[in-house]
Design goal:
heterodimer; A: 263 residues; alpha/beta; 6-stranded mixed β-sheet; 4-stranded antiparallel β-sheet; 8 helices; 10 strands; 25% strand; B: 278 residues; mainly alpha; MetI-like fold
């Protein structure tokens, strides 16, 4: 049985010109320790879907279950990493940022700082434990954010384009690092991206979404062995296949609102 | 793409040890700061020695300095300064406590914001001294009306800035914190308050400047038994311009000391250290 079940989830939001369907009737499951990527153009509802799984948004209809329990709000069973570097608390050092969730859980100071230090080691930032976020580069800040989301040991890691704002070289490093972290921690990951190569590098399975309204168009299993070589023929073939699904024109149903660009 | 944050993140490869403040040689800096004062003092001396004005009306700097020393040694000046500072502390503490509380309530609850913003916006731009006669009638001449007026007038910038600060706490901080199990009181203390701190400190700084201005003014009106404003106003009766100028100098010095000694230090220890303010 899948660990996360997204069942017939729809989400509509209000705009000045009326109610717009963001996501319509999306269903899929995610196995424990699976790395799932949601890929699609902007406006396809992939971030909306992630926010629903995270509990920041309630679906207009349908439901999400994690480990059999219906999601009704945020919970410590999920860690969230955002795209914005500014997600770290600037008034806390890297270590104390990572320890925040444990502090909220009521873990005593010594113990939580010990755990936080281990998490920082996992993302190779133990040397920067006592630095404030504004002294860290964008990539380092995102690594702290990953450590912070893992520190209170949630089963699920939800990531919303965490590396999209990084330069290409740093992004490659971060993808390798995340891949390692995922193998070491066995988290179930839901990862939103619009970057095809990133999805092929990271995912066990990719869901391709289409916009207006957001639906799951198809799913592709990536069966390449890890660590993956982005320059291998097989990798490029996967990338091509994924791209083909992304750019292929989808028939627009007569009920689909022509409300481009909003999301 | 990354917004403003990216810019300073790129430059720093690792944690920079506490950034060493840019140092030009100490003496040069002192000289550069002092130069305009020396020029003004020179002009002052030239005018006062020229005989253009009566020395009682335009005393020389030596005379003011001598008066300053005399007043300090005799304890008159410290006595008045202590009185003024006590009122300032009382009024400003009240303004800070009430102002921050109101600002937070306005920032967190829509209803409070809708209710309080219009009256606050109308009352804030009115010069504080305009309220003085009203306060004197209500609370009688003396300390009570002085302290209350100082608190009332100086709370406006605190309210406004706290309100703005609470509203501008980043959504992504709140979301991350909530995702990590923060809520209610703890979310407020651990995220909203530090997140709004740059604005709150600015509000306090502006509020203190406001308090200082209104206080000296009110001391001249409120028939308080002592205080720098009262001392300056009283000296008028005897044409003691040297006493007035000594009083003005002390007011300036205290204002500067509060600004540099209290607020700049507070900011260096918090928001500047955290990179939330440069």
């Amino acid at each position: 049985m899948p660990y996360i079940e997204v069942y017939e989830v729809s989400h509509a939001y209000d705009t000045p010109s009326g109610r717009v369907a963001g996501v319509v009737g999306v269903s899929f499951g995610i196995e424990p320790s699976e790395f799932l990527c949601l890929v699609g153009p902007s406006g396809c509802g992939k971030s909306t879907l992630l926010n629903i799984i995270a509990g920041f948004l309630s679906p207009t209809s349908g439901e999400v279950r994690i480990g059999g329990r219906v999601v009704t709000g945020q919970g410590l069973d999920r860690g969230v990493v955002f795209q914005d570097f500014a997600q770290l608390f600037p008034w806390r050092t890297a270590l104390r940022n990572v320890a925040f969730g444990l502090e909220m859980k009521g873990v005593p100071k010594n113990e939580r700082e010990e755990i936080a230090m281990e998490q920082l080691k996992l993302v190779k930032l133990e040397k920067f434990a006592h630095a404030y976020p504004h002294h860290l580069s964008g990539g380092m800040q995102q690594r702290v954010a990953i450590a912070r989301a893992l520190a209170y040991n949630p089963g699920v890691l939800l990531m919303d384009e965490p590396f999209a704002a990084l330069d290409a070289l740093t992004r490659d490093d971060m993808q390798r690092l995340l891949s390692d972290v995922w193998r070491k921690t066995h988290k179930t990951v839901v990862y939103v991206t619009h970057n095809v190569a990133e999805a092929v590098f990271l995912a066990d399975r990719v869901l391709v979404m289409t916009p207006h309204p957001g639906r799951v168009k198809t799913e592709i299993a990536i069966r390449l062995p890890r660590p993956r070589d982005p320059l291998s023929i097989e990798f490029l073939d996967c990338q091509k296949e994924l791209l083909r699904h992304l750019v292929e024109p989808t028939p627009i149903g007569k009920d689909a609102p022509r409300n481009g660009g909003i999301a | 793409m990354a917004d403003a944050i990216g810019a300073d993140a790129i430059g720093a490869a690792g944690p920079v040890a506490a950034p060493t403040p840019h140092r030009e040689s100490g003496w040069r800096r002192v000289l550069r700061t002092l130069l305009p004062f020396i020029v003004v003092a020179g002009i002052w001396e030239a005018v006062s020695h020229s005989g253009l004005f009566h020395p009682r009306l335009f005393p020389t700097i030596e005379a003011v300095a001598a008066q300053f020393v005399r007043l300090t040694v005799s304890g008159v000046l410290p006595y008045h300064a202590a009185g003024t500072l006590t009122r300032l502390a009382a009024g400003f503490a009240l303004a800070a406590a009430v102002g921050i509380a109101i600002g937070i309530v306005m920032g967190r609850w829509k209803l409070a914001e809708d209710t309080l913003l219009p009256p606050v916006s109308v009352a804030a731009p009115i010069p504080g001294i305009a309220y003085a006669p009203l306060f004197l009638l209500w609370f009688g001449p003396g300390n009570a009306s002085t302290v209350l007026l100082v608190a009332f007038v100086s709370s406006f910038p605190v309210v406004f800035n706290t309100w703005t600060g609470v509203k501008s706490v980043r959504e992504v901080w709140l979301r991350s914190a909530v995702a990590m199990g923060a809520g209610g009181w703890r979310l407020f203390l651990k995220v909203v308050l530090p997140g709004a701190l740059p604005f709150i400190l600015t509000g306090l700084r502006l509020g203190l400047a406001q308090a200082w201005r209104i206080l000296v003014g009110v001391e001249m009106l409120a028939a308080v038994p002592w205080g720098l404003g009262w001392m300056i106003f009283g000296a008028r009766e005897f044409l003691n311009t040297d006493v007035m100028l000594a009083g003005v100098a002390v007011i300036g010095a205290i204002g500067l000391a509060l600004e540099k000694g209290v607020f700049e230090r507070l900011e260096r220890l918090t928001v500047v250290r955290w990179g939330m303010m440069t």
